Recover the amino acids of this structure.
């Protein structure tokens, strides 16, 4: 069956993580050819590629360190050679470094910003000339409701995510005349397997989280993927510069 993204090519970064893999599967199911950018996670990338191709989709796994300008440039060339010009950038890759504020050194701060903000700039800067020439494009960044809510031990991460929302709005202004939209999807508390390795008491954490939300269930990666897919379609052609919070009503302001 034809999908709303037939004929489009998407690059999903952080594609082997809980959110990234769900986004890649959804875009492929909706008809897009998908480049799966990952960082040293060959097995997960191979499994995700097999899942998409077994479902009659097209996917190409590509490894890159998005913190490095030359690596970003090489990645974009590889995507072009394998799949053609990127129409849809889903800039999802990042890290979640927890560190108490008194222990946050300039090095820790710089690392958090390079990973969670500068890498997104590098990708968008490399890909938008071709989108501009084509007269169509979608840039979808993955932020976090913590950019609004705040949380202890995450100063660098939260600052970067707030900056990512600002970058997205700036890109909407810069690129709108070329029919390129830029939007940010900001997930709330999404249940992913990695949570079990960083949370001491997952059940207590879930109870605290549900008390913050209007919708009384944990978010799922597919919830985020659905929002990303919508923003990538022609149905979202008049939506740009926005932050769409997928958080069950945690942040209402």
């Amino acid at each position: 069956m034809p999908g709303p993204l037939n004929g489009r090519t998407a690059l999903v970064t952080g594609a082997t993580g809980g959110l990234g893999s769900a986004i890649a599967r959804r875009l492929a199911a909706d008809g897009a050819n998908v480049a799966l950018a990952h960082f040293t996670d060959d097995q997960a990338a191979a499994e995700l590629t097999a899942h998409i191709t077994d479902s009659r989709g097209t996917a190409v796994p590509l490894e890159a360190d998005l913190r490095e300008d030359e690596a970003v440039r090489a990645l974009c060339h590889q995507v072009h050679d394998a799949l053609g010009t990127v129409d849809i950038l889903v800039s999802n890759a990042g890290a979640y470094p927890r560190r108490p504020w008194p222990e946050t050194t300039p090095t820790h701060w710089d690392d958090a910003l390079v990973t969670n903000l500068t890498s997104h700039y590098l990708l968008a800067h490399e890909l938008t000339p071709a989108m501009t020439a084509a007269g169509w494009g979608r840039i979808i960044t993955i932020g976090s409701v913590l950019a609004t809510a705040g949380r202890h031990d995450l100063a660098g991460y939260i600052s970067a995510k707030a900056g990512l929302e600002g970058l997205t709005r700036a890109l909407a202004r810069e690129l709108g005349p070329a029919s390129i939209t830029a939007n940010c999807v900001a997930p709330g508390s999404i249940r992913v397997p990695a949570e079990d390795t960083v949370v001491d008491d997952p059940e207590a954490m879930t109870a605290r989280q549900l008390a913050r939300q209007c919708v009384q269930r944990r978010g799922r990666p597919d919830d985020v993927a659905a929002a990303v897919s919508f923003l990538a379609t022609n149905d979202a052609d008049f939506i740009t510069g926005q932050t769409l919070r997928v958080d069950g009503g945690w942040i209402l302001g």
Observations:
- The first strand starts at residue 9 and ends at 12.
- The mean pLDDT is 94.
- The longest helix spans residues 106-134.
- The beta strands are 9-12, 33-38, 59-63, 88-91, 137-142, 180-187, 243-246.
